[in-house]
Amino acid sequence: AAMRSRAEVDATLQTAKLNPAELLPAVHCLSFGPQAGGGECCLLQLEPGLCAELEAGHSLVIRGEKDEHAVLCSKDKTYDMKIADTSNMLLFVPGCKTPEQLNADPASCNIIHSQIAGFSNNYWELRRCRPKLKKLRKLLMEDPYNGPDSQKDQTSTFSKYTTEDLLSLIQASEEEILHQLQVIDACKIEGYWRILDFDYEMKLLNHVTQLIDSESWPLSKVPLCACLEELGSLEPREMIEHILVSYGRKYVDAGEVFFEMHEDKICRAIAQMLLQNAVKFNLSEFEEVWQQSVPEGMTTRLDQLQGLALVDKSSRPETIFLLKVEDLPEDNQERFNSLFGIREKWTEVDITPYIQDLCAEKQTVGALLTKYARSSMLNGVKVYNSRRPIS
């Protein structure tokens, strides 16, 4: 295209009935460059925090397998990616000067000829989202660890996963994945992340609690060295330490390592062991057996079972059954469908442990219930049921 002259620009302004005095003196003349094809470039809209991370030289990663919706992860956060269409065509102009820059440079040439290198009608929009961590447990549960003598472990055909594997398979940031591995008490065995088989975990916990009992140690001060010394002949020492880390808080006193055992977590695990073999359990009988089953000096309370078991107050006698939050769907609507399939009407107290993990940043359980359930009064108590018929 021929370069435009100032006279041609002025004539065009006159035709457009624009007053040159109201405009900046510099004029941008745009022409399409030879490579200005669409679809070559993708635009990504970043919040300032993410922008700063890129400028500091950190990388952002897009994660997801072929059948999953892509997410973008920084070191510690996860974002949903959605395409936003725009009615204004977005042009890429290398070395483009903004009005502010032109104003600051009074010597700026009268006519600036720029070539458009590309264009786009949409851009990727990021929305902070919950990391999709359910798959992490699912992958590790394919092949739980049964102990060093297990024949199953030698012959298993399931994949085992390193940190690198999990980073490529799980749609979450590295920090969120590593934190979740701690939450689910995973441990590294020969470089692979594993979850202990529940029966094996209970066997290890039982060894530890029996030792605490026989040595009459206070639950707040269980010595690591003595545990490894006493139990090392029964099970691998790193497994004994893993159980202490899972069920206690590690601290150092006078140069020696001790653990303060978590009473609630131990009581909860023993309740799970009792409940997993029965469909429903008479509540008062369960409470009695449970209290007898926990180590001396520990007190069982039903609130230790939030997100693990549910009490049915409507049955006579009252019953309790296993309902683990980690077995429920990760998607909000599917989670509510599943819960309303189990029970038609829920009180806020009962449903909270089963939806708490769905709350996005600064979102409350109340806001979730307003969106996915409808409320009514039942015998003076507010209850929630499904907004849609449950098939």
Automatic annotation (TrEMBL):
Signal peptide: none annotated. InterPro entries: Dcc1 (IPR019128). It comes from the Eukaryota. One of its GO terms (cellular component) is chromosome, centromeric region. The keyword Isomerase does not apply. Keywords: DNA replication. It holds the Pfam family Dcc1. GO terms for biological process: DNA replication; maintenance of mitotic sister chromatid cohesion. Belongs to the DCC1 family. This is Sister chromatid cohesion protein DCC1. It comes from Mystacornis crossleyi. The gene is Dscc1.
